[in-house]
Amino acid sequence: MTTISSSTSAISSVSSGGGSTSQIASLNKQIAQLQTQLKDLSSDTTLTDEQKSEEQTLVESQIQMIEAQIAQIEQQQAEKAQEKQASQKDATAASSKAADGVNRPTDSNTLNVYI
């Protein structure tokens, strides 16, 4: 039981800061540790079947929570990339539509022809 509680505290500390790529790597490492813990659990003879079942449920739920955190981080990365791409597109569109006085006259550079 102590390994599970220490894993839970590590999860909360990872979500508090750091780069998103390093967060994902750290979370994947935690998943690997929990999967190893699940494998070791099946060969543990000190626990009853009921205790093993409870322990397995706890570890699996932790893995699901970590996977959800990874999905959330990846979604945030995708949103940031979309915002960045949209702002670059807006900047490019604004600079290409700038009036140059020839084909797109400015207010001070227009030609009115009356016949």
From TrEMBL:
<dbReference type="Pfam" id="PF14282">
    <property type="entry name" value="FlxA"/>
</dbReference>
<feature type="region of interest" description="Disordered">
    <location>
        <begin position="1"/>
        <end position="22"/>
    </location>
</feature>
<feature type="compositionally biased region" description="Low complexity">
    <location>
        <begin position="1"/>
        <end position="15"/>
    </location>
</feature>
<feature type="compositionally biased region" description="Low complexity">
    <location>
        <begin position="88"/>
        <end position="100"/>
    </location>
</feature>
<feature type="region of interest" description="Disordered">
    <location>
        <begin position="74"/>
        <end position="115"/>
    </location>
</feature>
<feature type="compositionally biased region" description="Polar residues">
    <location>
        <begin position="105"/>
        <end position="115"/>
    </location>
</feature>
<protein>
    <submittedName>
        <fullName>FlxA</fullName>
    </submittedName>
</protein>
<dbReference type="InterPro" id="IPR025577">
    <property type="entry name" value="FlxA"/>
</dbReference>
